[in-house]
Amino acid sequence: MAQDGEQKIKIGVCVMEKKATSAPMRRILERLEAFGEFEIIIFGDNVILEDPIQSWPICDCLIAFYSSGYPLQKVKTYVALRKPFLVNELEPQHLLHDRTKVYERLEMYGIPIPNYALVNREYPYQELDYFVEHEDFVEILGKRFQKPFVEKPIDGDNHSIMIYYPSSAGGGMKELFRKVGNRSSEFHPEVRRVRRESSYIYEEFMPTGGTDVKVYTVGPDYAHAEARKSPVVDGVVMRNPDGKEVRYPVLLTPDEKQMARDVCNAFQQAVCGFDLLRFKGRSYVCDVNGWSFVKNSHKYYDDAACLLRKIILDAKAPHLSSTIPPNLPWKVNEPAQPSDGLTRQGSGIIGTFGQSEELRCVIAIIRHGDRTPKQKVKLKVTEEKLLNLMLKYNGGNTKAETKLKSAVQLQDLLDATRLLVPRASSGRESDSDAEDMEHADKLHQVKAVLEEGGHFSGIYRKAQLKPLKWVKASKPDGGGEFEHPVEALMVLKYGGVLTHAGRKQAEELGRYFRNNMYPGEGTGLLRLHSTYRHDLKIYSSDEGRVQMSAAAFAKGLLDLEGQLTPILVSLVSKESSMLDGLEDARPEMKVAKARLHDIIISEGKSVIRNGNSGSPWMVDGAGLPANASQLLPLLVQLTKKITSQVKLLAENEDEKLATSKYTVLPPYDQAKALGKTTIDAARIAAGLPCGSEGFLLMHARWKKLERDLYNERKDRYDVTQIPDIYDSCKYDLVHNGHLNLEGLPELFKVAQLLADGVIPNEYGINPKQKLKIGSKVCGPAVFFQ
């Protein structure tokens, strides 16, 4: 309280009325006034915008900060005239309107920021020789930014920020913007090229687990932090029953507290807000907002009022600064706040108050959802166009294998294949017409696979070219000889696409986890821990179906909306090493499969089956049907029956398309926006297979199964094909039942009987093998940092 006879310190609030009358500002000014030491003078818009500075109120201390329409230069002239103490300095506020200057100031003070580069255009759509855009990255002054990357306008008042996603995640762009109702971002799957109408900063995208951290300082020694759902996930703003955005308190690390102090000092803003990105154990500042207050926090209002009181008294009445009121004067009439509800929810304690048990961790390992059958085409190629393509993408290394996965690479492969297919049957020397025809068929299949869907996403198709034979040739410059590849093995992998049903399965499982994982908690995960997104980690292998399953699961688990690409990039960590153990276990698996083949072919005479053992899985080959060897010829016969039917359908496919009212099916990009069920409805009505698989590829799928299951020349069965036949049967029964393939239900029953025995035994036919193989397969997948 001001001492008797002592004049109150006048605090001028020279900000736009919208800011001066905001709830946080009112709450804090009311508290300052309650101390009895200050007189609060609010200038108002008319004074700030219309009156000359000579007639403005005279004050001892000034709260002044920029917002839209604010005459910053005019206020600076007033400060030069009256010389009040400034809570936030005015000159550095110019920096906050230019994101490049913000980053430069942060770098000057050693504050960590994302890796970035500047593209500065003097006029719209200016072509710059130092800026190059490719399919999945941009290059600026030699610095490469792979997608996903962030594009920010240099203008700090322009909040239209874009994130561009790689083709391997489906591509597209997400636009972030100031909240409009319950939306803070929109995903545009068709946008793939960056903007060129202005100047932009490009920076590395940092997945933060779907959470943004906002930090608020009041002086260099105080920082309050809150977490909110990041707009990059689904763009839906989480709000409480009162309509306020849901935010949770966050504890800052010592390094982050130092960063808050440095930001406050770097910009000479006592009251300041900035955005923090937490990524791989480190924190980075990505935006500084200037004057900012926390919303809906009585504790923060109390802290801010006390701290501002000290800052002002230190400057204008130091003899009063050390006097701390024993009781906060505004507490007398303030309604009581909830005492422990948020605290208990935030701590993660389960059950009634007083129990000591605490859930510390939940680990779940989940398989991908329903998918199309995985497919592979292998062929040896000698065509110059394909060999040159291999060299083009492996840097000219004649010995190196080449992997083609991006849209540009696959388009090049398709262009080359299209040129080769028409003359494939006569333009290649071979040992026999049969080999020549098989090679032509495989090239047709490659072409069909690459043309499937209408565009390349980079998720479900990839090709490998591995050189096999070389000849010596003279270098063009006459500088000696080099080995030129003349034959390569091409392996095209496709299929394994997560279906509409698969996405729904994964999303429903995530929703089930959210609501049922924690007994006694009606809202499940959302009430377990208020900052759960900081603790949530989702890992996926690099297979497309697994990534999309993980994204769909996260969508259900966290109650998100929208498409999966932004969710995938923001929340799912791709770990290719997750499957490394599979390679380590292949020798043991090969032994197990060989023994399994012998057991089936020998009619399993040494195997105890059908529950005759107390622990049937403990016996070699347990679970196989007793008549497994008799079922194999039937399996071959029924597989041939399906293949022949699909072949006839493939031969009539062109005629069907020509006469159907669905001759022009929805293009992939349009149909994707309509939803997969719309695509399938059109194809079913046209009598075609579901999804984008045509009869040609469907026939190739069944023909390969028929050929690989039984080698007539050697009279040998390959029992490892049984799971694939079962897989194809199940897929066609579920998704292509409208084709009414004769014999398919019977084939499914036979394949299921055999697969139920084969699948568990492929990873070891006895406990010792299972333990050895399992430990190698699962070892790398158990824990990730």
Summed over residues and divided by their number, the pLDDT gives a mean of 84
Tell me the strand percentage band.
Answer: 15-25%
Strand segment count: 26
Number of helices: 26
> Low-confidence parts, pLDDT < 50 over ≥5 residues?
337-354, 424-430, 520-524, 526-534, 604-615, 660-678
Overall 3D form = elongated
Could you give the distance between the termini? 54 Å
Sketch the major β-sheet.
6 strands, antiparallel
- Oligomer description: single chain
Helix and strand content put the structural class at alpha+beta
Rg measurement, Å? 34 Å
Helix content: 25-40%
Strand order of the largest sheet: 5-13-9-10-11-12
Keywords:
phosphoprotein, 5-stranded antiparallel sheet, Inositol hexakisphosphate and diphosphoinositol-pentakisphosphate kinase, kinase, alpha+beta, 39% helix, 26 strands, 785 residues, transferase, ATP-binding, 26 helices
Describe the secondary-structure layout.
Blueprint: E1 9-14, H1 17-20, H2 23-34, E2 38-42, H3 45-50, E3 61-64, H4 72-82, E4 85-86, H5 99-108, E5 116-119, E6 131-133, E7 137-140, E8 143-146, E9 149-153, E10 161-164, E11 173-180, E12 183-188, E13 200-204, E14 211-218, E15 223-229, E16 248-250, H6 254-266, E17 271-279, E18 282-290, H7 298-316, H8 318-321, H9 341-347, E19 374-381, H10 384-393, E20 402-404, H11 407-420, H12 433-451, E21 462-474, E22 481-495, H13 500-516, H14 525-528, H15 532-535, E23 538-540, H16 544-557, H17 564-571, E24 572-574, H18 580-601, H19 628-651, H20 653-659, H21 668-674, H22 676-685, H23 695-709, E25 710-711, E26 716-717, H24 722-735, H25 744-761, H26 767-782
